[in-house]
Design goal:
Elements lengths: L5 H25 L6 H14 L3 H18 L7 E7 L6 E12 L8 E12 L5 E13 H10 L6 H18 L9 E5 L4 E14 L4 E15 L6 H20 L4 H8 L12 H7 L6
Helix pairs in contact: 1-2, 1-4, 2-3, 6-7
């Protein structure tokens, strides 16, 4: 395998710096003084818990949703509001996704990349609060970001790259409960030539109610390939089927988990090609199940 070009390495590093810069701006809007999404969510959790009664708590969560919806209108964004349910005065729910450049989600891996995370916050009239942060949807390694630069047709702007990664995160969400694709090769054809390829991993997210862990499945993208030059055409075919299903779900029925799972079942199973570097390394610390 040829090493990444200097231009590709510069692109990945520039995207990492820009992602952290934009994260700091938008996290600070959600919780003044926060430098990252984790701190911003911790601050929001504290405000929710401190609010006196269900009505005030729902108001805090609605204000947070309005803040995120307003800030995501900017081309400089690393977050996407998936759902903002307002209910009546004492009930509210917020679900949003963030892109964060940081460490690999599995312990023992000495690499970094883009982590695409889901966060859910909920409060109701009974006074219950549910706060589940940092549920992994997808991870794109720095190496993969370099190959994205070399093998994609888009203009490599921050906005276009973020949109591409958002599609990968959406695909990870679509496959999170898809048992027939566990321990298999997972591809997604993003445009006429660009094919993301990787596999699903089992990892842990954070439940902030009790500081415990929750199970989550992550789509780990190891590289991007030129679809026109791939010998294994079944990967390209799987990627095309996947993108069609993803588009259909996003346009028509993204709020219906049953329909999401039905579309995911269309994606054919492709076996893994042996044990890869991530599995060999992560197994040493017992974080792959």
């Amino acid at each position: 395998m040829a090493p990444a070009t200097t231009e590709a390495r510069i692109f990945a590093e520039r995207y990492a710096r820009e992602t952290r810069r934009v994260e700091k701006i938008n996290a600070g809007r959600l919780t003044p003084g926060a430098d990252n999404w984790r701190d911003a969510l911790t601050g929001l959790r504290d405000r929710l818990k401190a609010a006196p009664g269900p009505t005030k708590r729902a108001a805090v969560l609605r204000a947070a949703a309005d803040n995120l919806i307003e800030s995501q209108r900017s081309p400089e964004r690393t977050h996407f509001v998936v759902g903002a349910y307002r209910g009546k005065k004492r009930t509210a729910q917020l679900v949003f996704v963030t892109l964060e450049f940081g460490k690999h989600p599995l312990s023992g891996m000495d690499e970094d990349g883009v982590n695409i995370m889901e966060h859910t916050l909920y409060c109701n009239r009974a006074g219950d609060i549910d706060l589940t942060f940092s549920i992994g949807l997808a991870y794109v390694s720095r190496h993969a970001m370099q190959r994205l630069y070399e093998r994609s047709e888009h203009d490599h702007s921050f906005q276009e790259t973020t949109s591409c990664l958002a599609s990968i995160g959406m695909y990870g969400y679509m496959l999170r409960d898809c048992e027939h694709l566990a321990d298999s090769t997972i591809c997604l054809k993003l445009d006429s030539t660009l094919l993301a390829t990787g596999r699903m991993w089992h990892a842990l997210g954070l439940n902030q109610n009790n500081a415990g862990k929750v199970q989550c499945s992550i789509y780990g993208v190891s590289t991007f390939l030129d679809a026109e030059q791939i010998v294994e055409r079944n990967k390209v075919e799987q990627g095309e089927i996947a993108m069609k299903a993803l588009h259909e779900w996003a346009v028509d029925c993204k709020h219906d988990p049953g329909r999401r799972d039905e579309l995911a079942k269309r994606i054919p199973f492709l076996p893994l090609r042996g044990v890869d570097y991530v599995e060999r390394t992560a197994l040493k610390v017992g974080d792959v199940q």
